[in-house]
Amino acid sequence: MPSLKDLRNRISSVKATQKITKAMQMVAAAKLRRAQSAAEAARPYAERMESVLANLASGVTAGGPALLAGNGKDETHLLIVATAERGLCGAFNSSIVRLAREHIARLQDQGKTVKILCVGKKGFEQLRRQYERNIIEVIELRGVKQMGFDTADEIGKKIIRMFEEGGFDVATLFFSRFKSVIAQIPTAQQLIPAQIPSNENAPPVEGPQASYEYEPGQDEILSTLLPRNISVQVFRALLENAASEQGARMSAMDNATRNAGDMIKKQTTIYNRSRQAMITKELIEIISGAEAL
Amino acid sequence: MAAFHFELVSPEKHLFSGEVESVVAPGADGQFTVLKDHAPVMTTLKAGVVTVAGGDGKVEKLFVRGGFADVNASGFTILAEQAIPLSEVDIAKVDADIRNAREDFSDAKSDDARLAASDKLSQLQELRAAIGA
Lengths: 293, 133
What we know:
The complex is a heterodimer of chains A (293) and B (133). Chain A has helices spanning 4-59, 66-69, 92-109, 121-131, 149-164, 218-292, and strands at 76-82, 113-119, 135-139, 170-178, 184-192, 213-215. Chain A has 293 residues and is an alpha/beta fold. Chain A has a domain at 49-195 and 214-250: Pyruvate Kinase, Chain: A, domain 1. Chain A starts with a helix and ends with a helix. The relative contact order of chain A is 0.19. With 133 residues, chain B is of the alpha+beta class. Chain B has two domains: 4-86, Sandwich (ATP Synthase, domain 1), CATH 2.60.15.10; 90-132. Chain B contains two helices and nine strands; from the N terminus they run βββββββββαα. Chain B has helices at residues 91-107, 111-132; strands at 4-10, 13-27, 30-34, 41-45, 48-54, 59-64, 67-72, 75-80, 83-85. In chain B, strands 1, 2, 3, 4, 5, 6, 7, 8 and 9 form a nine-stranded mixed sheet that branches. In chain B, helix 1 (91-107) runs antiparallel to helix 2. Chains A and B meet through helix 1, strand 6 and helix 6 of A and strand 1, strand 2, strand 4 and strand 7 of B.
């Protein structure tokens, strides 16, 4: 049976923890709002990009640049695993890593070579245990406060350089799509060869489609647009990730705060009970002492 | 004059969306103006100023740093690498950037670095000229 002092200590330490989780939740909420608006602001660009690309790609007859059609092989896979830099955000990091791990296992069963590029420290820490030899590089985003396009562009260029040097045949990007504060969906997206959304769902454009004029040429535009598309997709993934991370952290910290509240209530009841038991015991001692006289 | 739909988006922001009468954009092969019912064109852009004339006679100028322009029957879309309204550009900062870019250019060791520096410098000078005008 813990003494009253032990109970008091326990309650105060839970209270201190609750203050921290509460503060973290509020910080995450404030950051979430910013990250969410950034992710939403980036959406129109990525969507337009897709429709422009779909438009262009529909005009390309057989083959096309390697970034669009692939290099004809399917041997080496590059997995880009984008996670957070920090923990304490619920299942956010582990759910992305789990998806990537399933993917890796499947690819290795098929006898393919797997290379991993980690963006963010947490994913690296979790994958290191099992796939240390497959990890070719880790990009840390610790110093990046506000995700700018330049950061994504650098990663995109790195991927393209590796592709051109023949480092891999297929690239897949793993990140968490932000659906709402309580729902983040880990997603795998193939970057190279580019996946072009079918143009059928797009609203039909009136007028003759074939008469597009290209300046300079169609191939030149495509060859600048495709690398750019990769950077844009990486950028979008990073922004979605940032919003998801804050959302996941917010709900994780909300749970922690509530849990601490429950714990305090329970501990306080125990404390009060044993305090009262002690008083009763003392009273009985006094009374029975007086009766004995 | 008839109006058509124009959109200007950069990766970070949705800068302009609405009905306009004419848009002048800096195409890779020279400036071009788009009016209603322009033939479908797709082109790359170089650094320069996009001038948007709205229906109410209001003229807006935005600086773009490269990107793509897509004109089709549903309207005109610019996907800019970077875009900023001219009214928000800080002249002193641009001048400082130009000085830095000049130094980068003269300090550049490799050809690649020199090329990158001169690209940056010409973009900045383009921007400076646009403000000065």
